[in-house]
Amino acid sequence: MISRRKALLAGAVGIVVVGGGGVALAVREKPEPAAPPSVDPQGKMLWRNWSGTQSAYPSLRSAPKTEAELAQALKTAPAPIRPVGAGHSFTALVPTSGTLMTLDQMAGIARWEGDEAVVWTGTRLGALGPALAAKGRAMPNLPDINKQSLGGAIGTGTHGTGTTLKALHGDITALRLATVSGEILDCDATRNAEVFNAARVSMGGLGVITQVRLKTSANRRLHRHVWIEPLADTIAKCEDRWAKHRNYEFYAVPFTDLAANITHDETDLPATPPAPSSDDAFLEALKQLRNLLGFSTPLRKAAAKALLGSTKPEEAVGEGWKLLSTERPVRFNEMEFHLPPESQMAALKAVMAAIETHRKDVFFPIELRRIAADEAWLSPFNGGPRGSVAVHCYYKDDYRFLFDLIQPIFLAHGGRPHWGKLHSLTAPQLSKLYPDWEAFQAVRRRLDPEGRMLNPYLRELFGA
């Protein structure tokens, strides 16, 4: 969307004329956040999540190759037992002093049942796309990032965008759950139906899901269109675009009055050669504008419009698994809440006003998506469709303002948190947001009465 040369040009403009005089701006990159020691005094190796905010020194690392090995480990391994995928969650779902369990060796498509794929949950989303495509099938939708394991993605309610498209767990028709008793339960709408309703979004709190049966769709090519326009125009037209396009989302860019829009629609056009991602250059330009002109919002907005407002639209055609997810080389921390659709734009406007008034350091775009309803008990989309608003913060910047400044806005507009992203809600608040909260807790207590799957964070989250 913007060349690296233009981004560097933005950084070169280090003199701003103020009242006829020159003011030199000294801009320095912040240092890397301090990292914990790679080994603790007892010789235990460090585990750390993608953004660097969560870490632990588990006493045991488990990598079962079969369901039998996994079931035995759940019975005997030191607690708390926490499954881990790619470490893309920002909340403290994984850290444990007990057992860290990866399902990386339980990956791939186990078998096909008609057009439904039975998939091991250690499979990474980025690997599942081409595996399904080899049979002419695809996942109906994909999230913004495809590095997650399938188990981690469904366990936290991970989603893409599209008014007729569900989150990943919404396309699960059956699953197998290994419990701390060593039992493996087959669950669907008729067999162990309560466990099925609870387990689809359960953050690894009931046991470990080993396999899921997924609905798939035909592997169609999609036409991707990306363009920038004034934010006011995007807000005025977004509902029509969500109704018109298979996939639609937009990014509201603070301190620019601009928005980046992205649509995907099915097409029979021939595939185009893949183009290199320009997202990192776009973010670098926004960071340079923040560093150089953060002292003056009017100057920052004027420079942003001059630099970014006339960028040319991007077009691409390819299979969905190649286009729907994108690379995110620049690390960040994130808070995302899911709101009633009718409250989504009001929440966005309040968030933008709060950031532009109180947080001049923010430069990451704010992502808005729309997700169809499903029936999983702890799904944020249980009971009706939702519109998501995701606020990102550069990994070198202080993100604590998200809890004090942004989260109250989301709660005031009826928001539910994304389970893998930053929030500070606990059982008393969450029980009021989810009608099936107590039903979930009853299943959890029955399957794991001693709380072997619960680390301190989950104990507080579930009120255990």
Automatic annotation (TrEMBL):
Record's keyword terms, sorted: FAD, Flavoprotein, Oxidoreductase
InterPro entries: ALO_C, FAD-bd_PCMH, FAD-bd_PCMH-like_sf, FAD-bd_PCMH_sub1, FAD-bd_PCMH_sub2, FAD_lactone_oxidase-like, Oxid_FAD_bind_N, Vanillyl_alc_oxidase_C-sub2
Top-rank taxon, per record: Bacteria
Annotated FAD-binding PCMH-type domain residues: 54-219
Pfam families: ALO, FAD_binding_4
SUPFAM superfamilies: FAD-binding/transporter-associated domain-like
Entries under PROSITE patterns matching the protein: FAD_PCMH
Protein name listed in UniProt: FAD-binding protein
Species per Swiss-Prot/TrEMBL record: Phenylobacterium ferrooxidans
